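Practice problem: predict the structure.
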Amino acid sequence: MEIILLYLSAFLRPIFFIDLAKTTGLQTTEIFNWFAIALLVFLATAMFSNVALRKEFRVSLVDLLIVAFCVWCTTGYFLYPENSNGRELIKLLFPLCTYIVAKTVLRSTEQYTKMLKWMILGFAIPVFASAGLIASGGGVESLNYWTKLLRYEGVYSTSHSLSHNMTFVIMLLFIYARLKLSGDEGAEAWELTKRQMLLMGAIGAAALYCIAMSRVRTTIVGLVVFLLYYLFIYHRRLLVVVIIPLCAVAAVALGAWLYENLFFDFAKVQSGEWAAGEAGSGRPLIWAKNLQIFSDLSIDRQLAGLGVGNKVTSGEGVEDSHNDYLDTLMETGIIGLLLYVAIQIAIFAAILRMPRSIRHAFIGIFLAVAFMNFVSNSYITRSGLAQMYFLVMAYVEIRRVEQKARIAMPTQDARKRHVAWRDMVR
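Answer:
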């Protein structure tokens, strides 16, 4: 039962990002977020019931670090309730719990790949709906005052939500294809059918179109990081012979326009119209202000943080950092940030133990997400996005279980042969 619930969660999570507020008047994205949490709780309940019957539960270093981070953040919530927000605490922690549930429920690469397939099918709905809406002139978020260019949000609530989801599904497509074609450690490689390739190509093309129309720089650069790394490792000749020359031609033809329109704030800083701190949508100024607030705190508050959700509850002057790691530092303190970074290091170490055929696809998405977390609100503060990311990263645990099973299999076979020989002798 729990595997079906996990497939359902993977399918519905991309759909839950659709914003129906314009047509229904309801804040549907918030409702959908809570429904996703309820579905996870139901799934976790079914999982633990099954674990109790099997009397088998795998615990890894990542699990222990996640539990430690959850305990730390919850303790901070009760220590500083006036500066914390329960809703924000749940949104921060439940994606990490998703990882524990997914790696426990999924028991093979085949099940994991099927989960990715359902997630991709779920993405197809908002991807094609957004592309169609934008192409017809709808789904506009705003008009940029400086460039006079429209920013589109499609069926999402903001252009950033649109672009982050489109970027994630493109990376997801590459990981799914890599798993299907690699033949992991001698396992039989599955072929992608023409229908699957056509659907994946259409989803990827529509997602790229949406990213271009959202004009969100963080996700554009993050996707470039992923694609450059992926292509350098797996398709180096294609990268050097075809893609780099094409990009060079495009840079010559469109470079000036892109600089003036997509990176207009950097152009204004260079021309002297704006101060240096106003580049990157004012990130240097915001980071400096929040770091100054943090440095002025007492040592206990520096260790414990200002409380999860401080930005929406406190009058201490903390601004949205546009940097997930800085936000984590501000809200959970030095210890909270160290615990979260330790989780990421443990996951990265597990990725490095994968075979080369799939290892670098996961390194690519890990590096891209780390970059986007550093320069924006991405895979920590965006709860739904984080949930999908940790569902994908659960594969590192599945790999470990499969490796142990392969090692144990010869030993079990030898034991059976020994028992059979002993019985025959008797």
